[in-house]
Design a protein that fits this description.
- The protein is mainly alpha-helical.
- The chain has two domains: about 80 residues, Arc Repressor Mutant, subunit A, CATH 1.10.10; about 140 residues, GntR ligand-binding domain-like (Four Helix Bundle (Hemerythrin (Met), subunit A), Up-down Bundle), CATH 1.20.120.530.
- The protein is about 65% helix and about 5% strand.
- The protein has twelve helices and five strands.
- The strands form two sheets. The protein has a three-stranded antiparallel β-sheet.
- The C terminus is likely disordered.
Length: about 300
C-alpha cells in the first residue's frame, strides 16, 4: 500500500501534468523533487503509480507523458484536505511558471477554483500560503495581486539567494568521486553547452535548464530546508524572468556564467567556484535592477 506522502506526490504530479501535452518529456527528477517539495524516493514511487495507470511511460531512460490526466486519476487519501492542498500548490506553481499570471496583474479565487476544480476554501488557503513568500497580496472582494518587485526587494531577495547558494556550493565541492550529483552536474554542464549551440533559444526552455542546475546544486547539500527556502526565492526570480526582455538577458547571463561555476565544482577548485558564483550573483542582481529602472521602478501589467 502506498504511503500518504507517495499518494500526495502522485496527485501533485498529476496537477503539473495538466500543462504538458502528450509526448512531452518530464523534467529531471531533481527538478520535480524541488517543485513538489519531496525527495526522489516518493517521487519515483508516484511515477510508478502513474505509469501503471497509463498516464506516463518510461522510454529510453526518460519519462514521457502518454495522455492528459483525468479527474478519476486523482488518488484518494484519508487526509483529503492535505491532498487538495498539495494539488492546488502544484497547479498554482505550474500556472505561474507558464506565465499565465504576470507581476502586477489581478486574479480571483473563484477563477482559480473553477479552473483547478477545487473549492474556494482550498484555493484561499493555498493563496494565503503563497502570500507568505511575498509574491502575492490580498485585495478586496476575494481578489489577489501578483506583486511586482522594487529595487529594495531585489536586494533582499539576492542577499538571501547568496546565503543559500554559497551553502549549497560548499557541500557540492565536498562530494566524493562517483557521487550521483557529480554525474548530474556534469550532465547539466553538457546541457548548457548544447543549449548554447542552438540557433533558436527559448527563455522557457532555458528556465527548465536553470532549474535543473540549481536542483543539482542543492541536492548535493541534502538539506530539505535549504531546498524549500531556495524554491521560494527561485520562484520569485523566475516570475520576473518570464518577461521577454529580462528573460533573454537572464538567459544569456546563465549560459555564460553557470558553466564556470559547474566546472570549478567538478574540479574541486573552491576559490574559483566561489568567485564564479559571486560574479554570477552580482551580475544577475545588476541585470534585474537595471530592468526595474528601465520599466519605471516596477513592472507594469
Amino acid at each position: 500500500m502506498s504511503t500518504p506522502l507517495v499518494l500526495r506526490t502522485a496527485n501533485g504530479l498529476l496537477a503539473l501534468l495538466r500543462a504538458e501535452p502528450p509526448g512531452a518529456l518530464l523534467p529531471s527528477e531533481n527538478d520535480l523533487s524541488v517543485r513538489l517539495g519531496v525527495s526522489r524516493s516518493p517521487l519515483r514511487a508516484a511515477m510508478r503509480i502513474l505509469c501503471r495507470r497509463g498516464v506516463l511511460r518510461r522510454r529510453d531512460g526518460a519519462v514521457v507523458v502518454l495522455r492528459a490526466p483525468r479527474a478519476d486519476d486523482e488518488l484518494p487519501m484519508a487526509a483529503g484536505a492535505e491532498t487538495k492542498s498539495g494539488a492546488f500548490d502544484a497547479y498554482f506553481l505550474a500556472k505561474l511558471q507558464r506565465g499565465e499570471i504576470r507581476p502586477g496583474s489581478l486574479f480571483s479565487e473563484l477563477e482559480l477554483a473553477r479552473e483547478a476544480r477545487l473549492t474556494t476554501v482550498t484555493v484561499r488557503e493555498g493563496l494565503l500560503r503563497f502570500a507568505r513568500y511575498g509574491i502575492i497580496d490580498k485585495e478586496p472582494r476575494r481578489r489577489w495581486l501578483m506583486l511586482p518587485l522594487d529595487e529594495r526587494a531585489v536586494d533582499e531577495l539576492f542577499d538571501v539567494r547568496g546565503l543559500l547558494e554559497r551553502a549549497a556550493l560548499d557541500q557540492a565541492l565536498d562530494l566524493p568521486d562517483g557521487h550521483a550529483q557529480r554525474a548530474e552536474l556534469a550532465e547539466v554542464l553538457e546541457g548548457h553547452r548544447r543549449f548554447a549551440g542552438l540557433k533558436r533559444q527559448r527563455v522557457e526552455e532555458f528556465l527548465r535548464l536553470d532549474e535543473r542546475f540549481h536542483a543539482a546544486l542543492f541536492a548535493a547539500a541534502a538539506n530539505r530546508y535549504l531546498d524549500r527556502m531556495f524554491a521560494a526565492v527561485s520562484m520569485t526570480i523566475h516570475l520576473q524572468l518570464q518577461r521577454d526582455g529580462l528573460g533573454r538577458r537572464g538567459m544569456a547571463l546563465g549560459l555564460a556564467e553557470h558553466p564556470p561555476i559547474i566546472s570549478a565544482v567538478l574540479a574541486r577548485d573552491r576559490p574559483r567556484a566561489r568567485a564564479a558564483l559571486d560574479r554570477h550573483l552580482a551580475s544577475a542582481r545588476m541585470v534585474m535592477k537595471e530592468a526595474l529602472r528601465r520599466s519605471g521602478s516596477q513592472y507594469s501589467q
